[in-house]
Design brief:
mainly alpha, flat
């Protein structure tokens, strides 16, 4: 739970910074958020969560 919450906060901050620096327009940010919600409701969600968890575990072992 901590890793997924941290990931959401990190990705949210990246989107906010991209919108602020006009690298991502508000419309694009909305589409990205809607895509994330749609993706979370598919069968791919567990595989994506497992991949993120594995990446986080690997990074924690390095640092």
């Amino acid at each position: 739970m901590i890793v997924s919450l941290s990931t959401v906060v990190l990705l949210g901050a990246v989107v906010v910074l991209m919108v602020h620096h006009r690298a991502l327009r508000p419309g694009g940010a909305t589409v990205a958020a809607l895509f994330g919600f749609c993706l979370a409701s598919t069968g791919a969600a567990p595989a994506i969560n497992d991949a993120i968890q594995s990446l986080a575990d690997g990074l924690s072992r390095i640092g």
